[in-house]
Amino acid sequence: MLLPLRIFALGLAFTWIGMSVAARPLITSSEDSYGRICLESSDTPERIAAACEAALAESGALPATRAGFHRKLGSAKERLGDTAAAASAFLSAIGLLPNDVEAMNLLGWMYWDIDRNDEAVAMFRRSLSLRPTASANGGLANLLRIHLNQPEEALQRIETALLLEPEYSWGLREKGWIFFDLDRDADALEAFEAALFLDSEDAFAHYGVLTFHERAEDYEAALEAANRTIEFAPKDADFRSHRAFLLRRLDRNQQAIRAANEAIELDPRESDGYVQRAFAESALGYTAQASRTFQAGIDAGAGDRFLHYWYADHLSDYDSPETAMHQIDKAISLPGVGAEDWSLKAYLALELEDDEEALRAAISAVRADAGSPYGYYYHAVAELRLGRENEALVQFDAAMNRDLPIGFVRRFVGELLALGRFNTAMRVRRAY
């Protein structure tokens, strides 16, 4: 998820001027003070942090002023990557002013940035119990959508945020993503276009338009939106990888390879560029080169779960189940493993005639996503091969009830026929 422009949470932005704290004194004028520099300066985060710490070391400031020092110190520390010190500063502000909504929002967004989602939700709700703000409603809406899978409440929150701040660009974009989750695509497009009305160069709003056209399978229009996205965010490797994906969908694989290479050049440790290039190479018949591209991604440090999964998928088609199994086991050992990983492992185990391993992987796939049909299907095949026909039929029925593609009926019938279950095969054929 692309990071929001937290214009309502972070207050004054820091301006990087490339000087260390030691390069010149903090106080350069008789009218300056550590407190004033802390609260009003747009200097480097190092210098602001130093000024705020010096101001806090002095005595005499009122609690509200000291809370302001802590807030500014927390923002500076967050910019410097010291999230523990930042959290301590924000909590100190809240300790001085229990109703300090600004500090709560700053802390909530920092928790959001570092994926401490439950704490972020709690902090935003605490803030909103005191006073509604666009910042807290926006942050909570995003977490409700992504972390808690509650798009209806997320929509209520983001609409509240936009009532408070009608020109909240990030909020308009978030509203668009919520509408996608609710399958209200026309409303999503309207939200992204409203964001573009505020700022025609908003790359993330153009990306929302891209997504609308992609979901409608209008890949030419999506490609046009991708080009605008890249125009306004030329250094974003993800956008260029997505452009490569769209070019592949349009069967422009040579162009897709060039777009993927641009993404790799921008961020060699991001996996999607390698995956898109390998797919395009494979589509052109260069399957050995595609394997080398996957391996190049691993060698460059881009070997995340996504890359290993698709490398395994590629090898399952063009190499051997053994080599593919090695890659899917790598994927499963990494964070973010999902039902698709376990389903591919189950398929490969069946190819290797390791039916017990296939059964274990299929069960794990169902546990990871009970709504996906593929874990049930591979569970059914494994049970059938292990001699448990009745359980196999139960699992196959569960797969069909979850919209298993009709082609899998022929595959399952083939499994039954291979085991001599002719009458059962006929019943399955008639039933589905």
From TrEMBL:
It holds the Pfam family TPR_16. This is Tetratricopeptide repeat protein. It comes from Algicella marina. The keyword Repeat applies. Coiled coil: none annotated. Transmembrane segments: none annotated. SMART domains: TPR (SM00028). InterPro entries: O-mannosyl-transferase_TMTC, TPR-like_helical_dom_sf, TPR_rpt. It comes from the Bacteria. Keywords: Repeat, TPR repeat. TPR repeats lie at residues 101-134.
